[in-house]
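hey so i finally got around to running the thing on that chain from the lab meeting. sorry it took forever, my laptop kept dying and i had to restart like 3 times. anyway pasting the input first so we r on the same page abt which one it is
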Amino acid sequence: MDKIRVLLVEDDPDWKKIIETLLNREEDMELVGYAKTKEETIRLSNAIKQIDVFLIDINLTDNNLDGIYTALELKDHGNWKMIMLTSINDDEVIKNSFVAGAVNYVLKKNVCEIPSLIRRLYLEQSPLEILVKDYCRLKQEEQLKELTPAEREVYDLVEKGYTRTEIEKRLVKSENTLKCQIKKILKKLHSPTTKEAVKKVKSGGLI
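ok and heres what got predicted. didnt touch it at all, straight out
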């Protein structure tokens, strides 16, 4: 039987030991890696052939909520299932975790629930996972609500990777018209470049 391959992102050595002991008791799970920072996590995500589930502590450094930004970056690197570990029972923080790509969270006081939560996520798509995806889409749309229909048409093509020349031809726009529309889009999205604008929208406004 294939084991569920888990990577733990946790900076506290005591919690690392607790979770490691917990997962090692499960015959159908394997802890394939351990990281303490966002940089280590991204490196391991590229180096390890298969990771099924990431367990990510929301606070990796003091109270910076950098686990959320770790999840956000992982979201762009692969189709992972991510569970956030937290001691913070704060609705806004938890919502931001979902926007960053997490599909569930567990309070550290309920640490014993982690194996069963991993198992459920791995074996089936939960109703919560579906709701999270819908919520993420709503947060992305929220970033674009000020765009006119014409600007939204341009933005959608930018997000798909079309160049300005390709957009001009596809939408039959002059260079000056497109340049003006992109300038307005960047102003409304408070971003210096189209690349940053797309990144901001995909993050649901987290960055």
